[in-house]
Design brief:
The protein is of the alpha+beta class and 127 residues long. It has a single domain, classed as Ribosomal Protein S5, domain 2 (2-Layer Sandwich). The chain is 42% helix and 22% strand. It has three helices and four strands; from the N terminus they run αβββαβα. A four-stranded mixed β-sheet has the order 1-2-4-3. The termini are far apart.
Length: 127
């Protein structure tokens, strides 16, 4: 499976991001939080994903950007296992809610846990 994270898979729509935070559901695997909403896109992409790090917790842009790079890489490596198993199209936003920086192995494990929880919650919405 293709392990790239193309431009078409990135969440860019301001309207969709606002709707995501207003109406979306979430799952948490500290220090990551995933907010998602089922939606439809013009293209056939199953998932559109964005990442975000709070300026309140990380004042310096270099620290925020490093965490975002690690989150995008962890998502890129783990997404193929999940995008094949979902039905429908989803907009996802991964937020870093920790107060201190984490290393890549921690972020990667938590990303896996987060995507597992998302898949479980969406495959069994009533439980």
């Amino acid at each position: 499976m293709d392990q790239s994270y193309k431009k078409i898979e990135k969440l860019k729509s301001q309207k969709l991001i606002e709707k995501l935070f207003a109406e979306g559901k979430s799952v948490v695997a500290y220090p990551l939080r995933l907010v998602y909403i089922k939606t439809s896109f013009e293209d056939s992409t199953p998932l559109k994903t964005g990442v975000s790090v709070s300026k309140r917790n990380f004042k310096k842009a270099v620290h925020r950007n490093r965490i975002k790079r690690l989150m995008r890489e962890a998502y890129r490596l783990n997404k193929s296992a999940y995008s094949n198993n979902i039905t429908g199209q989803y907009a996802l936003m991964v937020l870093y809610i920790g107060k201190t920086e984490s290393d890549f192995s921690t972020i990667s494990k938590k990303m896996n846990t987060l995507l597992d929880a998302f898949l479980k919650k969406e495959s069994h919405p009533n439980s």
